[in-house]
Write a structure and sequence with these properties.
Layout lengths: L1 E8 L2 H12 L5 E3 L2 E6 L4 E7 L7 E7 L3 H14 L4 E8 L2 E9 L5 E9 L7 H14 L9
Parallel strand pairs: 1-4, 5-8
Antiparallel strand pairs: 1-5, 2-3, 3-4, 6-7, 7-8
Length: about 150
């Protein structure tokens, strides 16, 4: 398990250069307008969305798990606590297929619990990722590229 920090950045290239130096790591995945780092120490999934017009730097927070049982356990716990807002299965977004849970914090932050089931799906295209993030701006789902 590791925490995820998803940030909106004005310039992806500049941000990738900085975070590569800060964490002494190369991006795990980089696509147009998107990059992520799978950092071992400290255990962190750093996700960068290029959005020069974002009003907030923080996009969303998350917890990445590596076992489907952890998603099921989190789903039950969040549901019992009344803070489970959305469940998504086999969602291809942000250049990966995932099972995920969403919880909306009372002051507006979104939390995502997720497990990647396919880190490089063949159906993941730039157009699909773009459509996905466009739907986020309208519906607040998927990779949550909308303002928080």
């Amino acid at each position: 398990m590791r925490l995820q920090l998803a940030l909106n950045v004005r310039d992806l290239g500049e941000a990738v250069t900085y975070y590569s130096k800060l964490f002494d790591a190369k991006p795990h995945k980089q696509r147009e307008g998107y990059a992520n780092f799978a950092i071992e120490e400290p255990p962190l999934k750093l996700v960068l969305f290029e959005d020069p017009n974002a009003h907030q730097r923080l996009n969303h927070l998350g917890v990445e798990v590596f076992d489907e049982d952890q998603i099921e356990t989190a789903s039950k716990r969040l549901s019992q606590q009344g803070v489970l807002d959305e469940v998504q299965r086999d969602e291809t977004c942000c250049h990966a297929t995932q099972n995920k849970l969403w919880s909306n914090e009372p002051q507006g932050l979104r939390w995502e619990w997720y497990r990647i089931t396919d880190d490089d799906p063949t159906e993941s295209t730039e157009a699909q990722a773009s459509r996905c993030c466009e739907s986020v701006q309208n519906e607040g789902t998927c990779c949550v590229r909308a303002e928080v």
